[in-house]
Amino acid sequence: MRKSVLVIITASLLNAACFQGQSNEEVTPAKEKIDKIVECDKCDGSGQITRECFLCNGAGSTQGTSMVTERSICITCNGQHRLTCTVCYGRGYQKCSNCGGRKIQCSRCGGIGLIYYSLGGVGEWINCPNCSGNGYEFCFLCGNDGYYACQECGGKGWNNCPRCQGSGLGDYQTNLNTYSTKCNACGGRGYFLEDCDKCDGSGEIKESELD
Length: 211
Ligand SMILES: [Zn+2]
Ligand SMILES: [Zn+2]
Ligand SMILES: [Zn+2]
Ligand SMILES: [Zn+2]
Ligand SMILES: [Zn+2]
Ligand SMILES: [Zn+2]
Hints:
The protein is mainly beta. 12% of the residues lie in helices and 32% in strands. It has a domain at 1-47 and 196-211. The strands form six sheets. A two-stranded antiparallel ribbon has the order 1-12. A two-stranded antiparallel ribbon has the order 2-11. Mean pLDDT is 84; it is low at 1-19. Residues 106, 108-109, 113, 128, 130-131, 135 line the site of one zinc ion (ZN).
């Protein structure tokens, strides 16, 4: 079996040689000397022609892609980590919800701060025990400041973004990363050097072969 295959290959090689007319008997040395040898016009005598790389089309590099997982910017805080407190509008304090920021007149002394205290027909004005003499009811919520630190944001005026917990980063996303690498086929040159097909790489042709 192996022997017959070899025979076929040898025969086809011989056929090809005959077909192209390259057998030695046909080329007479005398005739070759008569023909004028000139520089090959296709390769300018270099014997080589450049052929654009089939893979990178002459660019020398090819585009590759890889998947990369990265986090986007948080869309809720736009990467700012924090959001202005919506309860105090960024002020950091709230008007007291108990007294409304207004001092409430003392119900016992009517705002004077003093009461007339009498014992056994002898009286005197003393500091009102209800308001300690200041004339206003004591507000348990704000201590009569009228305002207190915003309970929502702890007085800062902002809160960590609830979506990203203050990281500023959003969801994980898988993106296609495009990069370019040196072309494998041409080694980054973008072209191949091939023997000129007109002069078979010799750089010279007979004048009669010129177009
Ligand atoms: Zn040539
Ligand atoms: Zn290439
Ligand atoms: Zn956020
Ligand atoms: Zn607040
Ligand atoms: Zn109050
Ligand atoms: Zn009072």
